[in-house]
Write a structure and sequence with these properties.
By secondary structure, the protein is α/β, with parallel strands linked by helices. The protein folds into 2 domains: 92 residues, Ribosomal protein L30/S12 (60s Ribosomal Protein L30, Chain: A), CATH 3.30.1330.30; 157 residues, 3-Layer(aba) Sandwich (Alpha/beta knot). The chain is 34% helix and 23% strand. It contains 10 helices and 11 strands. The relative contact order is 0.13.
Length: 262
């Protein structure tokens, strides 16, 4: 179906820039042809595609089976958060993934405590996608996964990785009863590159400035650190949480899949 985007519809969709209205309506916006294509191919449900009038005139045959709303350049600008708005956006239903602890056995999962920066969360979701990690479990205090900046930073991975929000203390109690190992990053920990890591488990990453809280740290059996190779006494104090996540995931996967003798 093709229709014109009305003033009221545009106003309602523009409200999705705010978390409050995304939560109420259980919808979120995505921008750009690549992300829209990713959404269509995914298991998520695309409610409607919004396209610039001129784009529709040239590409109408490329869209089938999805409600399409044509819009003026001014309306697209009203909906977009980009400096140069793309000719295509989409409205997507927010998924509700069940978090089943038993299903996390024999897998690698990422758990995030109080991650605040949208770019960090989006990048970590992209990292999870790259390494085949299906689930990212966040504390309730972490930034929302369907924040526009998170979606853009994930580069489409948000449509393949399941992001959950839960009480991590309770979650770790449940994983403990299932004997799922927890691996956490600390400044004072075992050298990541020489440490023995389990064949599966949960990688716990803490807040950008405070790291993993004491309340969660007590649940973590395996503490590792990424050693600095810089011999100088003056060097970076720490790594960005997304960088650190990528390094630990890479080394953990290497140990599992390409350890000596395999």
């Amino acid at each position: 179906m093709v229709a014109r985007l009305s003033h009221n519809e545009c106003k309602q969709l523009a409200s999705l820039k705010m978390k409050k209205y995304r939560s109420q309506q259980k919808l979120f916006l995505i921008e750009g042809e690549k992300l829209v294509e990713e959404a269509i191919r995914s298991d998520m449900t695309v409610k409607a595609i919004i396209v610039l009038d001129s784009w529709w005139q040239e590409h109408s045959r490329n869209i089938a089976g999805i409600t399409c709303l044509t819009a003026t350049a001014q309306q697209i600008k009203q909906l977009s958060l980009m400096v140069t708005p793309p000719p295509m956006l989409a409205v997507v239903h927010t998924p509700n993934y069940p978090l089943e602890v038993q299903s996390l056995q024999h897998k690698i999962t990422i758990a995030l405590e109080n991650i605040q920066d949208p770019g960090n969360l989006g990048t970590i979701i992209r990292i999870a996608d790259w390494f085949g990690i299906e689930n990212v479990v966040c504390s309730h205090e972490s930034v929302e996964a369907f924040n526009p900046k998170v979606i853009q930073s994930s580069m489409g991975s948000i449509f393949r990785v399941k992001v959950h929000y839960t009480d991590l203390k309770q979650f770790f109690k449940e994983t403990g009863t299932m004997h799922i190992p927890l691996v956490g990053t600390f400044l004072e920990g075992e050298n990541l590159y020489t440490a023995h890591l389990p064949a599966s488990g949960i990688l716990v990453m803490g807040n950008e400035s405070k790291g993993i809280s004491d309340g969660l740290a007590k649940h973590i059996e395996k503490r590792v650190t990424i050693p600095s190779i810089n011999a100088s006494q003056v060097h970076a104090e720490s790594l960005n949480v997304a960088m650190a996540t990528a390094i630990v995931c890479s080394e953990w996967m290497r140990k599992i899949h390409w350890s000596a003798g395999q």
